[in-house]
Amino acid sequence: MTDTYSQLVNNGMGKTVATRLGLPRPATLRRYEQGQSLLEAPAAVGTVADGTSGQAARGIVVASGAEAVDATPETTYAGKLGAVVLDATAAATIDDLEQLRAILAPAVKALGKNGRVVILGTTPAEIDDVERAAVQQGLEGIMRSIGKELRAGGTANLLWLDGDAQGDAALLAAPLRFLLSSRSAYVSGQPLRVRSAQVSEADDWTRPYVGQTVVVTGAARGIGAAIAKVYARAGAHVIAVDIPAAGEALATVANEIGGTALQLDITAADAGRRIADAVAQRAEALDVIVHNAGITRDKLFVNTDADRWGSVLDVNLRAEMRIDDVLLDPSVKGGLRDGGRIVSVASTSGIGGNRGQANYAASKAGVMGMVRRLGEQLRDRQITVNAVAPGFIETEMTSKIPFATREVGRRINSLMQGGQPVDVGETIAFLSEPGSAGVTGQVLRVCGQSQLGA
Ligand code: NAD
User: Where is the Ketoreductase domain (predicted)?
Assistant: First the structure.
């Protein structure tokens, strides 16, 4: 779906008029293509107090083919920066926040187009000292505010590292690379926790899914089709699932990516078994399942009948849980292997609620509750469970929203535009990477820092 306003104010005469009138001009976001460099300009890397993760971050930046320069209060930047990474894990006193400001402000000022700010902090829930906990929580406020001030497609995000995950380049690499790269084009204003875990890094971090089998539900169109394509690009064999009525579109997607089409209604009683059977035909076990299929049946809560209520909960929540039960049974051939990944698609409606969507919000908030609990339960099997919560994404679903409501949905975020289905796909693929072993039980928003539920 096209965003006519963005096109108008970014071209020729429209650009001149918009600039004169001071109208918002959404930036054209840099998006990932195979072989693209991590950053278009150097990354400034700095450390507050005696943090140990800045050095690790610097190493990751350099190993990824980007240039790194030191960020200090005295640094004068010769040209534009592609990113700023600040290790604030050791910030413990309110005075340390002044050091953070002094390092960060000149570097943020020097950021070029599609610039990235990534702050590294210590998980506040793990801290006993009150001032240190307050200071670390303060990082979230700083990051969110910078995200709202950045222009030209810039994003700001925060990685909260557990104490035993700090200074560990293997745990940090996948999350940091994702947030620095254009794969995170529509992820801004978000904190993400990284916990200690065993990490097996892929040989080629740009194609981490070579040799893996990935199931994507609801893959015939929209976000699901985009997710399937991202996994295929990154090397996976994708089993694309959708209802029989969408069979033709499903076959087109599966053919395009050299994957397998599986016509299946995920609410069927034997859905889990049929997915496992399809996996078993080509692999020992499943590496990743992405629960993307979802429906809306909007109505004001007071007018919602049992059918509207139940059908949305059945597709968006119950079906996922039933399928996972089968795939997590170690005796099932074609089930999820230990070290495998589960990623679900939630929604910002599940965070902020939405008029006419109590059933949908119940299902999507339910998904978030599910991944938090299940992620915890499956840590001993090294299986990670996460969700993404997309905001306004340009799809057939959102093209049906009345014009004025749609325009509001598109603009009330820091990037002043809707996201593309591929932005959700990139984020899901990041969460299930081998290198993302330290990220589990979390919900990552893909919403351009939307005000909804903020
Ligand atoms: P869509 O309607 O374009 O695609 C959903 C796909 O799921 C369709 O191909 C449909 O046939 C399939 N599906 C529905 N019920 C199924 C079932 N019982 N069994 C198997 N397949 C089934 O929607 P979309 O916009 O691509 O959304 C994908 C996911 O993202 C959904 O979970 C949705 O709730 C979520 N989401 C979308 C947005 C957005 O802005 N578009 C925002 C937040 C969350």
Answer: 212-396
